[in-house]
Amino acid sequence: MRLILFVILLALLLRGYEWIAHDSRMPWTPLSLAAPIGPFTTRKISALAADTPRCHQLLDEASIGYTPLPPVSAGPNCSYDNGVTLTRDQPQAIAYRPAARTSCPVAVSLVLWEKQIVDAAAREHLGTTVEAITTFGSYSCRRIGGGQTGNFSEHATANAIDIAAFRLADGRTVSVAGHWDADDERSRFLKAVRDGGCEIFATTLSPDYNKAHADHLHFDQAPRGGSHYCR
To answer: Do the Cβ atoms of 143 and 149 come closer than 8 Å?
Structure first.
């Protein structure tokens, strides 16, 4: 009897070990674009900033079309060497207008956001899907707020993107400027994609933050050690 109990206990322990060792939510499991978003997803994305080949590999494994960008250097605070453009040439891929030219970690973040947040929110709140996303761009050699002093923005290293509107498959357009406070399914959709962005990006800013963000959602992957700033 003791031997049987020992074998059962050992089997349960081994099964538990296998689950813990391979659970995508654990900090030691590799990032996968097919895995659900977990508490360590942002930290894993942050690590890609120092491993561009691995970042490209993730996009390749998920069959995400992209084109590496040539390095940009406009001074010590305005440069990047890990930029990509999401080409969006796959069936049912969401197009970016203009094209999303970002750091590779931000591109990976956008793919996760599209697949696990935007699509589900559009179906739930709007009864359709998103065909295209209008952006205010990514790279911009400037300081936070556009002033002459202060810290440089994450946009200065293509580590951020601003989202302005969503073109739906049924022809409608939902914009942050026009529908954030609409108190209907459009505003609920916008707040859902904002909240979902908070699970993926290190920084998520919306009209709830300040007037400077009244017309867009700001997403970036500023180094925060895996923590999030969400407003």
So the answer is: yes
Cβ within 8 Å of residue 173, ≥6 positions away: 165, 166, 167
Q: What tens digit of pLDDT does each residue of 172-205 get?
A: 999 999 999 999 999 999 999 999 999 999 999 9
Full 3-state SS string of 90-112: CCCCCEEECCCEEEHHHHHHHHH
Contact of 103 with 158, CB cutoff 8 Å:
yes
Tell me how far apart the alpha carbons of residues 207 and 213 are, in angstroms, rounded to a whole number. 5
Task: Respond yes or no on whether the N-terminal peptide bond of residue 98 is cis (omega within 30° of 0).
Answer: yes
How far apart (Å, rounded) are the C-alpha atoms in residues 25 and 37?
Answer: 7
Strand-by-strand arrangement of the 101-103 sheet: 66-68, 83-86, 101-103
pTM over 0.70: yes
52 near 82, Cβ under 8 Å? yes
